[in-house]
Amino acid sequence: MALAPHAVHRLYEYRKSLSTKPFGARGKKLIRCHLCLLGEQFCTCSLRKQLTTQASFMLIMYNDEVLKPTNSGRLIADLIPDTHAFLWSRTEPAPELLALLASSDYQPFLVFPAQYADQGQTVLTEVPMASLAEGKRPLLIMLDGSWREAIKMFRKSTYLQGLPMLSFDPDTLATYALRKGSHDFQLGTAEVASLALAAMGEEVNAKALTAWFDLFVESSLLGRNRRCREDILPISDFTDAFEAAYSAATPAKL
C-alpha cells in the first residue's frame, strides 16, 4: 500500500501554488513523478518505507528549494515519519514552526557547522539521548538551500541562534554529484541527516537513509542522461542495497 504524501510533498504543492510560472528545472522536458520528482521511468515512490526512529526533523527551506528535483531534503521526509517542513521567512516565520520549537515534546538541535556558532552557543558532536528530559524527542533542524542561503537563514533567524548546535567534521567528501556548494566538503541535506541519525546512536537508520540517498542520486542521473555508459550500474543494485539497509534497520530496538 502506498504511503500518504508527507510534509515536503504538501509544501511543494503549496509553494507551486504561489508561482506565476512553472519552475525551470534542468531537464524540464523530462516527464517526472509529481511526488519524488524523478523521471517516471525511475520513480522510487513504490519503494518508500518508514523507519522506526526516535528522531524528528524540521526542514526550513529557502524559497524555491522545495521545487528543485535535485533537492534531497525530501528524502528525509520519505523515511522519517515525524518530519516537518516550512518555507523560510526572515520577517514572518510560520507560527507552527515557532510552536514546534517551544513544544514540551521536543528538544531542538540546529544541525549546522560549528564555525558559525554564536559566542556561548552550545556545540555538540552527539545527541545526548540519555540526558534528554523525559518524554522529549530530539528535533533536528535542517536549513535546506544552497550554502549561502543556509548561512543567510541562520544569521537572519534569531529564533535559531540560541539553540544547541549539532555539528560534524566528516572524514569523507560528499558524493553528491547533482549540486555542489562552494565548499568541497559540503554534503547534501540527506547526507547530513544521516550523520545526525548516527549521532543519536541510530547507525542502522543512518545507513538506510544513505542507501535511499544513493538510489535517489543514481535515479536522478539516469533520468537526466548524466551517466557515462561505462559508469552505469544496474539500478537494481541500488534498490537492493536500500532494501537490505531497511531490513537491517527494521528489527533494531531503539
Please explain how this structure is put together.
- Helix content is 33%, strand content 11%.
- The two termini are 25 Å apart.
- With 254 residues, the protein is of the alpha/beta class.
- It has seven helices and six strands; from the N terminus they run αβαβαβββαβααα.
- Helix 2 (73-79) links the parallel strand 1 (56-61) and strand 2.
- The chain has helices spanning 7-18, 73-79, 95-102, 147-155, 189-199, 203-223, 235-249; strands at residues 56-61, 83-87, 106-111, 123-124, 137-144, 165-166.
- The longest helix has 21 residues, at 203-223.
- The chain has one domain.
- The chain is globular.
- A six-stranded parallel beta sheet has the order 2-1-5-3-6-4, sandwiched between helices.
- Its EC number is 2.5.1.25.
- GO terms for molecular function: tRNA-uridine aminocarboxypropyltransferase activity.
- Residues 29-225 form the DTW domain.
- It is an enzyme of class 2 (transferase).
- Keywords: S-adenosyl-L-methionine, Transferase, tRNA processing.
